[in-house]
Amino acid sequence: MVSIKRILLPQPIEKEALSLLEAENFEIVLAPDKRAETVAPLLKGVQAVILRTGILFSKELMNHADDLWIISRTGAGVDNVDVSAATEMGILVTCVLGTNTHSVVEHALALIFALAKHLPLMDREVRQNNFDIRFKNLPRDLKGKTLGVIGLGRIGSELARICHHAIGMNILGYDPYLKSESMAVFRGWVDFCDMERLFRNSDVISIHIPLLPGTKKIIGAREFGWMKSDALLINTSRGGVLDEEALIQCLRGKRIAGAGLDVFAQEPLEQDNPLKKLDNVILTPHTAALTRECVITLAMEAAKAIIEVLHGKRPQGIVNPEVLAHPRWQGFPLS
Q1: Does 112 lie in the same domain as 259?
Q2: Any catalytic annotation for residue 140?
Q3: What is the DSSP string of 65-90?
Q4: Which of these is catalytic: 238, 244, 245, 322?
Q5: Catalytic member of 154, 244, 286, 301
Q6: Do 94 and 105 sit in the same domain of this protein?
Q7: Could you say which of 46, 103, 111, 129 has the lowest number of CB atoms within 10 Å?
Q8: Per the structure, how many domains does the chain have?
Q9: Is residue 238 part of a domain?
Q10: Cα torsion at 203, 209, 211, 213 (round to 10°)?
């Protein structure tokens, strides 16, 4: 088994996860801040890292490590890890799959309802004593409307299920990576189509795809131009899958009704980002999965992955299984 003694935390994790690690007598190294230049020297003598989203684990940063075996992410996305570099260096990368599904779905639903019912506007107007705003009949029903879902993985499919079965929405789906046997699960209630038809015919579009080289800015001016003038756009996946500048221009021109964004091209959002001045967008700080309950579970699962490796067991959520063929791992097979 791999001898794991020291674990680096570039950012704090929940006490419940710390308790699991302390029970194994690990030495915990907590970085005073998450800047790469602060974290880099702390990697010496560390065998494991529990990684949140606040820092990019690049090849350059990993080069500072001299005994790193595992990077354990506290979420499903690994776009802040250079996985290919980690694999080349013999470093196992794990993530936590499925745990945040319901939290993100609930957040996406909250954004959809807030936009469709004009909740921010209604709140502001009531506070300004404009009770007559009610007579403008601005809120819209969702029943009978069409939801377009881009990416029918765990989160996208659950959002689609709730919106169809509980709210009565029609569902259009786009997912070129979904296998035919997986598509069979949606037969009869999800209409799979190409991107253009989805954008042209949906009243609400919700994005649930990872940020990969092939998905960077996959949605831009052309796709926004296909949307209905009263359509809504929701993104709780990764900001980089959208052309943010094109979206800003679309919202400025009121070419769509609005957007709900939990993720951005740059995080934290730049101080002068034009999105902050637009009244037809709701902005949240990449918080869809950061519920009180979810962050505890995510941290605990990330800690468990390291404990599993310590005991010679194969952890859940391995991102780069091919790394186990690396010469470093030949004497430490995981069962």
Answers
A1: yes
A2: no
A3: -SS--EEEESSS--TTB-HHHHHHTT
A4: 238
A5: 286
A6: no
A7: 129
A8: 2
A9: yes
A10: -100
Same domain, 264 and 131: yes
Q: Which domain holds residue 145?
A: 101-283
φ/ψ bin of 79: left (φ > 0), alpha (ψ from -120 to 50), beta (otherwise) = alpha
Pick the closest to residue 172 from 153, 155, 147 (CA basis).
147
The CATH number that applies at residue 213 is: 3.40.50.720
Residue 321 lies inside a defined structural domain of this protein: yes
> Does 154 have pLDDT greater than 80?
yes
What element of type H or E holds 258? strand 258-261
Let me know whether 83 and 119 are in one domain.
no
Give the list of residues 6+ apart from residue 277 with CB closer than 8 angstroms, or none: none
Q: Let me know if 326 is a catalytic residue.
A: no
Average pLDDT value for the chain: 97
Residue 7 near residue 48, CB atoms below 8 Å = yes
Percent of the chain at pLDDT above 70? 100
My answer on whether 21 and 128 are in the same domain is: no
Q: Is residue 335, in this structure, part of any structural domain at all?
A: no
> What distance lies between CA 58 and its chain's CA centroid?
19
Average pLDDT over residues 229-256: 98
Q: What span, in angstroms and rounded, lies between the C-alpha atoms of 288 and 102? A: 10
Q: Which listed residue (267, 293, 311, 314) is catalytic?
A: 267
Q: What is the pLDDT of residue 180?
A: 86
pLDDT digit string, tens, across residues 260-289? 999 999 999 999 999 999 999 999 999 999
Q: In the numeric block, which tokens belong to residue 317?
A: 């959520």
Residue 1 has pLDDT above 90, yes or no: no
CB 49 within 8 A of CB 10: yes
One domain for residues 53 and 172: no
Q: pLDDT tier at 181 (50, 70, 90 boundaries)?
A: confident
Verify whether residue 181 is a known catalytic residue: no
